[in-house]
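<instruction>
Derive structure tokens from the sequence

<record> Sequence and structure tokens follow
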Amino acid sequence: MAVFAGKRWQWGARFVLFGLVLVLSLLMVPSVRSRIRRIVMGGRSVETVLEYLSQRHPEWETIAEKAGTPLTIVVFKHERQLEVYAPGWDSPKKWPLTGFSGTLGPKLREGDGQIPEGIYAVEGLNPNSAYHLSIKLNYPNVWDRIYAKKEGRERPGTNIFIHGSSASVGCVPIGDGPIEELFFIVAKVGMSQTRIIVSPYDMRLGRNPELEHSPLPWYPKLLENIATALQAIPSAENP
């Protein structure tokens, strides 16, 4: 009987240890942490997030007030960097991407892992993102939908965000700290006053002939549109 009880205790201890390891493993997943936080704290609103961030970083109020319009967010896929430009700032804000998926080139269909390329608006701010906070692009925009329809691509994809953490399946992750500041600035300046340019590379430093000879007949024109939009934005190498 004593031997049986000892074995039963050992199996019980193993079960508890296994459960603890499982729980700790799940807590490492950002989406699980976010859901647990929402259950414990309740859903957050944009206003409550802004209030919380302004208390932690009162200097962000001044940064947002000085920004002016338009606020321009630029994502360079090759350089894996996000830059933010505002007419009232002396210099842009720059953050490296903390994750990446896909290759250079446009997004064509749902599940291809591509980060879209083009000129986008902000469709929404998500204070309850599985990746801390997120800013939604209006992908697919009119351009994306037109050419998807012409080519018979019924599911070009959706739900493309700039967000925290480091996971990416077509989204743009910049880490939790940077997304807090960017989320705050976009909310204060205004979604309608913010545009997002996603470029395969920094065209201000030169052009890539290989991409411009794409088999997609509309892609060179898209690159031209992106290049024109970037011309108004100075670079550190070409002020």
Remarks:
- The chain has a mean pLDDT of 88.
- The chain has eight helices and eight strands.
- The two ends are 83 Å apart (CA to CA).
